[in-house]
Amino acid sequence: MPRLGTQRRTTQHEPQTISSTSNLEDLKTYYYTQTLDHFNYRPDSYTTFKQRYVINSKYWGGANASAPIFAYLGAEESLDDDLPIIGFLSDNAPRFKALQVYIEHRYYGKSVPFGSMKAAMKNESTRGYFNSVQAIADYAVVLLHVKKKLSAENSPVIVIGGSYGGMLASWFRLKYPHIALGAVASSAPILYFDTIAPQAGYYSVVTKDFKETSESCYETIRKSWAEIDRVASKPHGLEALSKRFNTCNRLNRSFDLKDYLDSVYSDAAQYNHPPTYPLSVLCSAIDGASVGTDTLGRIYAGVVAYMGNHTCYDMNEFNRPTKTLDGWSWQTCSEMVMPIGHGSKDSMFPPAPFNLNKFINECKSLYGVMPQPHWVTTYYGGQVLIAWIYSWQSQVIRNGWLCKERQRSR
């Protein structure tokens, strides 16, 4: 399942850039003694852990002026990964004289309960406190603490997040309207649950991005899957594929190569931002291969252009165990069950529909728990949530689009 973080899963292709108005020297780090379980009164519920948050007060107009607070809600990665690249807060803080607050998501970065990620992910009991409901309760507690500490009770709070963090921002505004006056939810797939959105939606958009970038690139990729299977079916075919794609280890199955390419393409589309536009880089290499280069040769040229020129290519590049990958794997196997699959029509990917029963069995095998595919829509809302977001009461900006209903009501 694709990860939803604000930065790509592999960062080898492109260096991080820091917003022009952001200076890491202006950031001050704090740790709040956070309650492990906000919703129970058992003795273990009162266990605490240190939750990291960062403040930039350079442009803040102060509590006496009731200057606003921009609060970035951390998602499925360390704040160390986010701070150099999140520009929305620092770009807009000078204009609004806003205090910038960045809060790390529990179980990521340095905000891990039980002393270490290994201990925190050890069993069903320690993982049980790792969910979005606890996370947004954390944010509420930290924001109230910051406002009290700075005597800023009258400063309005705008919560901000991208992707999964954007979902958290939407849900925070829904559940804690007395704390957040508004929310900015960038690229937040809040309806990708419980069969509300088309299962093939994600990969349909990836396909559309490639097709709009280059029709010939799209066609080459679309044809390549059958070519991979054809070569793999021959005697010593997997060995031949390993050589063609310069894999670090010999392929044991063609699926590993196809899964790797799937991740490369979705990664390029999901993070196709300026100034480099990595999707265009990838397609230019596929289209620009020398005359006579066959389909697999063109695909390999795209891999080299996107991933960089390396001595070999690790087919587990996107699946290496990391704190982020381990954490997100748990979240998707518990409450964040998004039925993402390949469609059979108008897709450059081979058909691969999402199989809920298979997914449940895999998650039970990994973690010993049953996923809850209906919980997100039960707790946060489904179609009704969209109606609320587009009403004047919500004060939610989703995907960069300010809801017009509030303006019309004036």
Please tell me the overall pLDDT: 90
Report the radius of gyration as a whole number of Å.
23 Å
Q: What is the chain-wise order of helices and strands?
A: EEEHHEHHHEHEHHHHHHHHHHEEH
Provide the β-strand percentage band: 5-15%
Largest sheet: 8 strands, mixed
> Poorly predicted ranges (pLDDT <50, ≥5 residues)?
11-21, 400-410
Helix content: 40-55%
Estimated structural class? alpha/beta
- N-end to C-end Cα span: 43 Å
Q: Short description, anyone?
A:
This protein is an alpha/beta fold.
Please, could you describe this protein's structure?
Keywords: Glycoprotein, Hydrolase, Protease, Signal. This is Lysosomal Pro-X carboxypeptidase. Belongs to the peptidase S28 family. With 410 residues, this protein is α/β, with parallel strands linked by helices. The protein contains 17 helices and eight strands. Strands 1-2-4-3-5-6-7-8 form an eight-stranded mixed sheet. The protein is globular and about 70 Å long. The two termini are 43 Å apart.
